[in-house]
């Protein structure tokens, strides 16, 4: 598999507060990677860097072996091509919707990017996401889960190569969470998903990258091995002490049912 993304020694600060510390990460085409870390560990910031919204002051970022620079992203044509291929679903879908109907919402980005056969494309993706019955509704009136599906339809209709999902299960009930997990598993593109939920991480991807409280990558691999490592679990600060024990007793299974 060829490499789609590579971060080399990337650090990021807001003011003088470091929120990503010397991050190196490479992702192969077709991989489903989960970024796991507590709130504030830097997950959203990392996705925004990969989406080219934020630019790291230190380190390098390559997309399909091409170095992505702030200068390139300031070029309209380059940014347009890049943002069509690398798309980000924000944690709060309200920040992404602004059209009067669901149809317009999905059609909007298709028009922006010059796609043809817009009606067919909207129809295909709304059907795939189970929102065809909502096409004439205002997206603002929908539930959080429905809004999220509208945003996903509008991003996926662009046929991106890399889908970035910021805590996509954080505001979903268990049924919608299960639906989303199945849906993502069937998608044939590279996906990077963030979550703070240890129990959900293995469902969202086969490879888990753990960000510590100190904003460093402390683990990259199979989650089963991660939860066997007491020291790393403590560094990640992902579970309470009594749940910690639980993780060791049942180390080959995932018994974290909260929020799922
Ligand atoms: P996560 O997604 O893991 O919760 P974030 O990347 O959102 O982490 O945030 C990492 C840290 O950066 C947090 O302490 C957060 O308060 C801070 N932060 C996030 N966005 C900004 C911003 N625009 N300005 C200043 N600090 C920020």
TrEMBL record:
Query: Record's Gene Ontology CC terms?
Result: ATP-binding cassette (ABC) transporter complex
The way this protein sits in the membrane is described as: Peripheral membrane protein
Q: Which residues form a coiled coil?
A: none
Q: Where is the signal peptide?
A: none
Residue stretches spanning the membrane: none
Pfam families per record: ABC_tran
Q: Where in the cell is it found?
A: Cell membrane
Give the family per the record. Belongs to the ABC transporter superfamily.
Protein name, UniProt field: Cobalt/nickel transport system ATP-binding protein
Q: Which organism is it from?
A: Persephonella hydrogeniphila
């Amino acid at each position: 598999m060829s490499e789609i993304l590579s971060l080399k020694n990337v650090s990021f600060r807001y003011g003088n507060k470091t929120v990503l510390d010397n991050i190196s990460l490479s992702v192969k085409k077709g991989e489903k990677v989960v970024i796991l870390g507590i709130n504030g560990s830097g997950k959203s910031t990392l996705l925004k860097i990969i989406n080219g919204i934020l630019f790291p002051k230190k380190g390098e970022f390559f997309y399909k072996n091409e170095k992505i620079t702030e200068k390139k992203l300031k070029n309209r044509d380059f940014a347009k091509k890049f943002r069509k291929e690398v798309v980000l679903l924000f944690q709060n879908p309200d920040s992404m919707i602004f059209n009067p109907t669901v149809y317009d919402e999905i059609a909007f980005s298709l028009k922006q990017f010059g796609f043809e056969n817009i009606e067919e494309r909207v129809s295909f993706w709304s059907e795939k996401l189970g929102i065809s019955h909502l096409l004439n509704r205002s997206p603002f009136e929908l539930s959080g889960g429905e809004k999220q599906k509208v945003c996903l339809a509008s991003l996926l209709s662009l046929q991106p190569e890399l889908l970035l999902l910021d805590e996509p299960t954080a505001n979903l009930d268990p049924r919608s969470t299960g639906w989303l997990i199945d849906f993502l598993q069937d998608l044939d593109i590279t996906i990077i998903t963030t979550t703070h939920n240890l129990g959900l991480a293995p469902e969202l991807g086969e490879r888990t990258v753990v960000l510590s409280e100190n904003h460093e990558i402390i683990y990259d691999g199979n989650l089963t091995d991660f939860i066997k490592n007491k020291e790393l679990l403590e560094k990640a600060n992902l579970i309470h002490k009594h749940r910690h024990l639980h993780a060791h007793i049942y180390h080959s299974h995932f018994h974290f049912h909260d929020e799922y």
